[in-house]
Amino acid sequence: DAGVIQSPRHEVTEMGQEVTLRCKPISGHNSLFWYRQTMMRGLELLIYFNNNVPIDDSGMPEDRFSAKMPNASFSTLKIQPSEPRDSAVYFCASSFRSGQDYGYTFGSGTRLTVV
Amino acid sequence: KQEVTQIPAALSVPEGENLVLNCSFTDSAIYNLQWFRQDPGKGLTSLLLIQSSQREQTSGRLNASLDKSSGRSTLYIAASQPGDSATYLCAVYAGSRLTFGEGTQLTVNP
């Protein structure tokens, strides 16, 4: 398996633009997580899907952020409009059975810079 | 709310030393604890996963222990090498949430 695949690896955009981050989880994993990493706040959980259904979105910072999982093999995280404070590395992770038994596998991340 | 603390925040050692990284968590009702490694500008690589019913896990030169009752885990690295230089993150899984510590930045000097 190629692991969790995220795209793009790097994104530079202007303030106010829409940004879409993409994630392909490991085949067979039924849970998917979006995390954000910054120097100030470390790794923060944004949203968690189980069987394509959003279970916990309490970490989504505000309405500018939205996430979808239309099928078991694809998820998107969208920021509209983007702001400079959204600059961070965004990680997607997947697991089988919510990570309880087998832990989490992380993608390589998308480094977002909003100027 | 689960809080995870890692000590020390940074560690610099000469090659060959054995070392211990510490992780503590506030809520002992966890399912498992996972240690990750993160190289600069890279993603997270899973090192060891310890279930709540287990006391330790070993992989090569790495050994992780878990004392759930006291809310502590340690990662022991034997015979450290320059290639071990990275940030090591501890994460505990409880409920439906994986909570991370802030990491220990390790530098192993040749």
H/I helix tally of chain B: 0
N to C succession of SSEs of chain B: EEEEEEEEEEE
Question: Which oligomeric state applies?
Answer: heterodimer
Given helix and strand content, the structural type of chain B is mainly beta
Poorly predicted residue ranges of chain A: none
User: How do the SSEs of chain A run, as a string of H and E?
Assistant: EEEEEEEEEEE
Rounded average pLDDT of chain B: 94
Please work out how many helical segments of chain A DSSP would assign. Answer: 0
Q: What class, by secondary structure content of chain A?
A: mainly beta
Q: Could you give the distance between the termini of chain A?
A: 36 Å
Cα distance spanning the termini of chain B: 41 Å
Explained architecture:
The complex is a heterodimer of chains A (115) and B (110). Chain A is an all-beta fold and 115 residues long. Chain A has strands at residues 5-7, 10-13, 19-24, 31-38, 42-50, 53-56, 65-71, 74-79, 88-95, 105-106, 110-114. In chain A, the strands form 2 sheets. In chain A, strands 2, 4, 5, 6, 9, 10 and 11 form a 7-stranded mixed β-sheet that branches. Chain A is globular. The termini of chain A are far apart. The model of chain A has no long low-confidence stretch (mean pLDDT 93). With 110 residues, chain B is mainly β. Chain B has no helices and 11 strands. In chain B, the strands form 2 sheets. In chain B, strands 2, 4, 5, 9, 10 and 11 form a 6-stranded mixed β-sheet that branches.
